[in-house]
Amino acid sequence: MIEGCKICGVSDPDTLSFIVNHPYPPKFVGFICNYQKSPRFIEFNKLEKLLNINKNNSQYVAVLVKPDQEILEKIQNLPFDYYQLYDCTPEQISSIKINYNKKIITAFTVKDKSDLEKYQDFDEVTDIYLFDSKGYEKSEAFDLNLIMDIKINKKLMLAGNIKYNDDIDKYGKIADFIDLSGGLETSGLKDRSKIEIFLNKVKQAIYEN
Fold first, then answer.
1. Rounded to 10 degrees, what is the CA torsion of 122, 124, 127, 129?
2. What tens digit of pLDDT does each residue of 39-79 get?
3. Which domains does the chain have, with CATH numbers?
């Protein structure tokens, strides 16, 4: 059953203010901290200023692809609640979790069943599992049947070509949280009208179930 959502790839203060002050704000807001291929990547100086906006009832997530020591040191005092980590081993995640005292969203990019073979190796270091497409900065889909029968004792987040006006209930059969980025954009920019529709649909799905 859907418990909430994440809006990812936020990079400007007007959009962030709209999101965190919404009557039904997302549980998580994500910021692309070190993946420069993404059009939603934020340089550190801009990120530092952006995060001065009070998160209110949302939680801030640093999205990090195989982060090195430099970026981890840079962002350690920013108001992040979670680190969302791609392409890290369980040992690397454990070290990051201990050294920086953050909750962890472990992200798996999925194309076929082989991509899910080792997810259980991350149980001890993961707070939330995220299953995403191989697209990274692109909004690509993957076969959701691949994760239908996964047995985990942690919360599960789902990303990958989810649309702002999709039927939320169909994802509730699989995940606890859904994660949108490109699906909330028009011509590469976050679209408030799409965000409004999406947040209201999530609120409806939560309270009707």
1. 20
2. 999 999 999 999 999 999 999 999 999 999 999 999 999 99
3. 4-208 (3.20.20.70)
